[in-house]
Amino acid sequence: MTSTTESAEIGEVITAGGIETNVHIRRHPTSSDTVLLLHGSGPGVSAFTNWRLTIPYLEQEMTVIAPDIVGFGFTCLLYTLRAHETVLDLVCRLLLEK
Predict the structure, then answer these.
(1) Whether the predicted pLDDT of 50 surpasses 90
(2) How far is CA 72 from the centre of its chain?
(3) I need a surface site. Which of 14, 27, 74, 87 has the fewest CB within 10 A?
(4) Distances (CA, A) of 49 to 26, 56, 76, 79, 93
(5) Between the CA of residue 51 and those of 19, 31, 38, 40, 86, what are the distances in Å?
């Protein structure tokens, strides 16, 4: 979903828990192993800023999933205490794709 005019911080948009979630997914062509990378919180935090140097190494061995948590990066800001539900729904949707 990225193009030359978009930022590298923008991955795929997946609706999870009713929230449009920005997710970086690097699918390994043969490995069934998958790692989910969750970032912390703070000013300027996103999956890309936290994991951009780690993802290239991990994607050589496994599928990598790194979502922007609700309210961070390019995932919409909602005043909710249910951010964990969004991550859980995202993981379930991605597992059902297999």
Answers:
(1) yes
(2) 11
(3) 27
(4) 16, 13, 17, 23, 24
(5) 22, 20, 9, 11, 19
